[in-house]
Q: What sequence folds into this?
């Protein structure tokens, strides 16, 4: 093989190496940001996130030009996880359980990511109102379809009332350092009892965590 052929082969491999490096750096930045936001909140700087990720500040900015871009990406991943675990609203499970499991799943994600709890509530709210293709809106289909029609929700309860539970949960989490998950779980169960129309036959009420 002559030098020109060697040079050409090396140039062909270079883009693949660059793509692999970019993918690895992106993953490192996202992991570091999740940990930083979870521990210290959204005020953590991009420079600190880059330091934790072990990449240069310029590299972090190439992947995510602003911190808002980085937050959106992390929250999008959270919502993707919620979609994957959501119960099908058309399943045979009682409508109240379909509805409440969706709320509990969202709230649990908030509690495991305290620094992102408010951002998750914002993203879920936006998606629930605007995602007409399904996605996160399908999680809350029971709010406007199954649950009210089955009489398990008070008739005057709206989607915004339900989403307000997540905003309230973010506040509870923010004021419960070190006990975010139990405090969140208790708040959510109390809030759900407040919007339920009446005890439903065949559904055992959850015990409110102490």
A:
């Amino acid at each position: 093989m002559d030098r020109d052929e060697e040079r050409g082969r090396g140039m062909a491999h270079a883009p693949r190496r660059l793509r692999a490096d970019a993918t690895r750096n992106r993953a490192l930045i996202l992991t570091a940001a999740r940990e930083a936001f979870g521990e210290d909140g959204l005020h953590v700087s991009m420079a600190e996130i880059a330091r934790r990720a072990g990449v240069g500040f310029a590299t972090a900015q190439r992947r995510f030009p602003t911190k808002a871009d980085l937050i959106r990406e992390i929250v999008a991943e959270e919502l993707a996880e919620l979609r994957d675990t959501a119960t099908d609203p058309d399943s045979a499970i009682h409508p109240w359980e379909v509805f409440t499991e969706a709320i509990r799943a969202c709230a649990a994600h908030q509690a495991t990511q305290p620094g992102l709890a408010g951002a998750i509530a914002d993203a879920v709210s936006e998606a629930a109102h605007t995602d007409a293709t399904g996605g996160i809106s399908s999680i809350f289909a029971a709010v406007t379809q199954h649950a009210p029609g089955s009489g398990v929700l008070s008739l005057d309860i709206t989607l915004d009332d339900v989403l307000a539970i997540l905003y309230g949960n973010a506040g509870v989490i923010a004021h419960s350092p070190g006990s975010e998950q139990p405090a969140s779980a208790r708040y959510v169960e109390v809030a759900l009892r407040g919007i339920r129309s009446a005890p439903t036959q065949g559904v055992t009420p959850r015990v409110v965590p102490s």
Remarks:
- The mean pLDDT is 77.
- The chain is about 70% helix and 0% strand.
- The two ends are 74 Å apart (CA to CA).
